[in-house]
Backbone:
């Protein structure tokens, strides 16, 4: 499965923003090509972000937005 890295979350947010602009889209299905889509956050990136409070806050806001 994929881990939710900052890069993946950013890419997903870009897609969500584009979908949000399209009034004809009423449903979005996010599915895995394999057995599972996501294994959770990238723990190495999360640990690095915890060391820097502004980065941690920005990461939390971005995840909450997604």
Residues:
């Amino acid at each position: 499965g994929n881990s939710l890295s900052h890069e993946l979350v950013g890419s997903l947010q870009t897609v969500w923003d584009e979908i949000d602009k399209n009034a004809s889209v009423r449903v979005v299905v996010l599915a895995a090509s394999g057995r599972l889509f996501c294994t959770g956050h990238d723990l190495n990136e999360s640990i690095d972000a915890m060391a820097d409070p502004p980065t941690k806050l920005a990461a939390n806001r971005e995840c909450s937005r997604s």
Residues 3 and 40 are 5 Å apart (CA to CA).
